[in-house]
Design a protein that fits this description.
The complex is a heterodimer.
Chain A (H helix, E strand, L loop, with lengths): L7 E12 L2 E12 L3 E5 L6 H9 L4 E10 L2 E2 L5 H6 L2 E4 L6 E5 H15 L7 H12 L7 H4 L1 E2 L5 H15 L3 E5 L7 H14 L5 E5 L13 E6 L2 E6 L1 H10 L2 H11 L1
Parallel strand pairs in A: 3-10, 3-11, 6-9, 9-10
Antiparallel strand pairs in A: 1-2, 1-4, 4-5, 7-8, 11-12
Helix pairs in contact in A: 6-7
Chain B lengths: L2 E3 L16 H10 L12 H12 L17 H5 L3 E2 L20 E6 L2 E2 L13 E5 L19 H9 L4 E5 L9 E7 L5 E3 L2 E6 L4 E10 L7 E10 L4 E9 L5 E10 L4 E8 L4 E10 L5 E10 L4 E9 L6 E10 L4 E10 L7 E10 L5 E10 L5 E9 L3 H8 L5 H17 L5 H15 L3
Parallel strand pairs in B: 2-8, 3-7, 6-9, 7-10, 8-11, 9-11, 10-12, 11-13, 12-14, 13-15, 14-16, 15-17, 16-18, 17-19, 18-20, 19-21, 20-22
Antiparallel strand pairs in B: 1-21, 3-4, 5-6
Helix pairs in contact in B: 2-4, 5-6, 6-7
Classes of the chains: A alpha/beta, B alpha/beta.
Chain lengths: ~260, ~450
């Protein structure tokens, strides 16, 4: 929902970045305000997933220029865990499997790290169990997910639901969903999208990165950005996604080039 | 197959050390031995034979294949003296108590300490104590295959007494038995604690064997031999924890013989001592015998921890499942050599072995070598070895949820160890080991 006077949550200005010496982001600018849902679309290799990892602080990427301000703070100075505690959440395209760590323990450690950061008392195992049980219904997850190792042997859909369960517990100010729709059948997609919608409030924001318009039938964006070659090529409303679906990405580039001439 | 991961050159003899005559050194060790205790008077012939054997030998060097990665030079630097038993108080060993294993046998510097042991009301079918419990002597002592190995023979030549755990036929003993081997002294001393475990046919019990040092323990060397004999259909669940002091040496042998239909489960944790070597040898002497071995070695600083295991099948339908894990930090060095021997007679053997290693530092080193010798043609045997570091992506995933990098590494290392730690049958010991593990991973 677009509102003129809402707070800026994320402001990216002329961001450039590289991995192993090759430039991936080439001057990206983007602003996200509270209450807004943004979608970034673009062809493979345009830098969409890289952007999400850089925002979350993945050590493999080097920021070479520009700035990122998250809720008034210089995001790039923060360690990944500090970014998470400040309210940034990345739902991974490929959530990692961690054999030997129970999902419940993982969720509790993460939840309590946030509680501690906020100066609240950590929840004990009993109280946390009650809390997490209350969130399972949102994603139609069975309690048996909790006793299994983190993501180990989970199907694609189960992994994505587990990501949104983490989002439900951590209540981020900005949730970046990196291809949350990949590997999901239509039923799982509806569950995941519904979970995200339930968690969206006027105080937080969503940045959904996707290849396909399909996801945007369920998570309705206020803005659609088209990304190519490390930059945002054009920005429009949700109808832009439909046009991209019908005409592909190349016309956007041609149109931009025509304007430039 | 051999996987070696290392940033440092192969182990070599310490260059600056004076040359030591390895044969004379070993012979001198025998001369340090104490007189036979009255309880062990029946051992004289056995001791004499072993003494003769040791006097023909020398301390192994890294030129011997079996000792290729384990350099004993630090032992040769020490001038070991016999232990002068120091009385210790019951308070001193309170930290090692296990409330869920009330029956406890304590040996201090190799000598039985009845006043520290808590035997409680035991039925005659369960004998705990030292050799004086069995006036007729124990026919099995020193008779296992491989007893002529140098350090086993040295123990046999020098032992003065032995711990005895003897559970009679058909006795299903529910209460875990705790065998605590304490090293007290700050000096360079050498002790040869010995233990004989007899599980008669159809008996069942749980044994916790633990090696600890009192604070301030110096360069003590514990040369241990434990012999375990399982009768037909017996089940022994054995947990061995070696957490001696940082300056100590530990050379240990666990020799197990298993009659038909028996089941031996060992969970072996090795994280103490400056230099530790454990020979874990299983001889399946009957058919349909099951062996389950879980090992965890946790090393830091400049520790060396070496596990040499052998599972020898001799009869059909034998089963073995072995998982050995090593977590190696700093400049420490872990060694695993896992031999599985399946001769022609051992048809329909089903054996698997997995060696998994986690290196926490670029200077940590592991040498792992599965060694399968199979001549039977209708068997199922698998083995594998992996060496890895903590995955940067896994650490990042946890960090992205607000978990600190340090906590993330700890969680992941815990997870790596969990499979073995979870196999410990006693909750108190399991919890204690978890908290010690977290202390070692997070010394601050």
């Amino acid at each position: 929902m677009i509102r003129d006077n809402s707070d800026v949550i994320l402001a990216i200005q002329d961001l450039t970045a590289e991995v192993d010496g090759s430039p991936i982001l080439k001057g990206l600018t983007l602003e996200i305000k509270a209450g807004e849902v943004h979608a970034i679309m673009g062809p493979n290799g345009s830098g969409k997933s890289t952007l999400s990892k850089i925002l979350a602080g993945h050590p493999a990427y080097t920021v070479t220029g520009g700035s990122v301000t998250f809720r008034g703070e210089n995001l790039l100075e923060l360690e990944p865990e500090a970014r998470a505690k400040a309210g940034l959440f990345l739902a991974f395209q490929y959530p990692l499997e961690i054999p030997g760590v129970s999902n419940l323990d993982f969720l509790r450690v993460a939840y309590n790290a946030k509680r501690k950061h906020e100066g609240l008392e950590e929840l004990d195992a009993f109280d946390f169990d009650e809390l997490v049980q209350s969130k399972l219904g949102l994603l139609q997850m069975d309690a048996s997910f909790l006793s299994r190792s983190v993501n180990e042997g989970f199907s694609g859909g189960e992994k994505k639901r587990n990501e949104i369960l983490q989002m439900a517990l951590l209540e981020p100010k900005l949730a970046i969903l990196d291809e949350i729709d990949s590997g999901l059948d239509i039923d799982a997609l509806k569950i995941v999208a519904n979970g995200v919608n339930e968690l969206t409030t006027p105080d937080n924001a969503v940045l959904a990165i996707t290849h396909y318009q399909r996801l945007l039938n369920y998570i309705t964006p206020d803005y659609v950005h088209v990304m190519e070659d490390g930059r945002i090529l054009t920005t429009g409303g949700k109808e832009l996604a439909l046009e991209l679906e019908a005409r592909g990405y190349s016309w956007v580039r041609e149109e931009e080039e025509a304007i430039a001439r | 197959m051999s996987i070696q991961v290392s940033m440092v050159p192969d182990a070599t003899e310490t260059v600056n050390a004076p040359r030591v005559d390895r044969a004379a050194y070993l012979s001198r060790l025998v001369q340090l031995r104490g007189e036979l205790d009255a309880a062990g008077s029946g051992l004289k012939d056995l001791r004499d034979r072993a003494t003769a054997l040791v006097q023909e030998r020398a301390m192994p060097s890294t030129r011997a294949e079996e000792w290729r990665f384990t350099d004993l030079s630090p032992l040769l630097q020490e001038s070991f003296q016999p232990v002068v038993p120091q009385p210790i108080t019951a308070e001193a060993i309170i930290p090692f108590g296990l409330t869920d294993a009330p029956h406890r046998l304590v040996f201090v510097d190799g000598v039985y300490a009845p006043s520290l042991s808590t035997l409680g009301d035991l039925p005659p079918e369960v004998q705990l104590g030292n050799l004086s419990r069995v006036p007729g002597g124990i026919p099995h002592i020193g008779q296992h295959q491989g007893a002529e190995e140098t350090f086993t023979a040295l123990n046999t030549a020098c032992m003065t007494d032995a711990a005895v755990i003897w559970v009679a036929q058909g006795q299903e003993w529910r209460t875990p038995i705790h065998l605590l081997v304490v090293t007290t002294t700050g000096a360079a001393t050498l002790s040869h604690p010995r233990c004989v475990v007899i599980a008669e046919a159809g008996s069942q019990f749980t044994l916790i064997e633990e090696f600890v040092s009192l604070e301030g323990g110096g360069a003590a060397w514990v040369n241990r031999v434990t012999e375990i004999k399982l009768g037909a259909g017996a089940t022994v669940n054995h947990t061995r924890v070696q957490r001696q002091g940082a300056h100590t040496f530990h050379i240990g042998k666990t020799a197990v013989s298993q009659a038909r239909d028996s089941r031996y489960v060992a969970t072996v944790l090795n994280w103490g001592a400056h230099l530790a070597r454990h020979h874990l040898e299983i001889y399946q002497t009957g058919a349909q015998t099951a062996t389950i071995l879980n090992g965890l070695t946790l090393l830091q600083g400049e520790q060396l921890g070496d596990t040499h295991s052998l599972i020898a099948f001799t009869q059909p339908y034998g089963m073995a499942n072995q998982v050995q894990k090593c977590i190696v930090g700093d400049r420490a060095h872990a060694v695993f050599n896992g031999k599985i021997w399946v001769p022609q007679a051992a048809q329909l053997t089903n054996a698997s072995q997995l060696s998994r290693n986690l290196l926490l530092s670029p200077r940590a080193r592991v040498d792992t070598k599965p060694q399968l010798e199979i001549t039977a043609d209708n068997v199922k045997c698998s083995h594998g070895a992996t060496v890895s570091q903590l995955e940067e992506d896994e650490v990042f995933y946890l960090q992205s949820r607000g978990i600190s990098a340090e906590m993330a590494r700890q969680l992941l290392t815990f997870a790596f160890a969990a499979e073995v730690v979870d196999a410990i049958p006693l909750p108190t010991l399991r919890d204690r080991i978890r908290s010690e593990l977290s202390l070692r991973l997070n010394p601050a």
